[in-house]
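During the no-cost extension, the postdoctoral fellow (Dr. R.K.) reprocessed legacy sequence entries with the updated structure-token encoder. One reprocessed record is reproduced below for audit purposes.
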Amino acid sequence: MHLNRPWAIVLIVALLLSVVANFFTVGALFATWRFAASTPAGLSAIAELRQRIPEEARPHFREAFLGNREQLRPAFKALGDARRVLEAAIRAEPYEAEAVAAALDEVGARSAELQIIVHEVLLTAVSELPDDVRRELDLSARGPAPGGPLGMMLFGPPPGALPPPD
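Re-encoded structure tokens follow.
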């Protein structure tokens, strides 16, 4: 093959661009997967919520969350501890269904307590917003897709997810 032909040069450039694009795509998917795997579920939900809050409303939410830090931190820690106990109960040998059931109940209780605190914080923040900003809020919970963006492409949105706003 002679490289002095125009189609050969175009073919080589296209091949190189394809290889670069593939490396970029794989790297981006890997970085997204690692970030999603290392982010606690509660924090990723808060990060998702933050993206949907208009810029002018963010200071109200920031103040409300920071003002309730003393309640939120122990609640997040208690939920994390309960999840670790559940994981240990599931992996325990011998397996004890009663221990797993008790751990699941504890996770549910800690989740409910945290949800109550977060709802109070959201109520505080929303109550302080100007009417026009409050009407434009989108606080609907869509939840992350399993597997991040790749999971969303492969499996679609999680069950019960709301369609994106128009």
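The chain has a mean pLDDT of 76. Helices lie at 6-38, 41-52, 58-67, 69-91, 97-127, 131-135, 148-155. The remaining legacy entries will be reprocessed before the final report is submitted.
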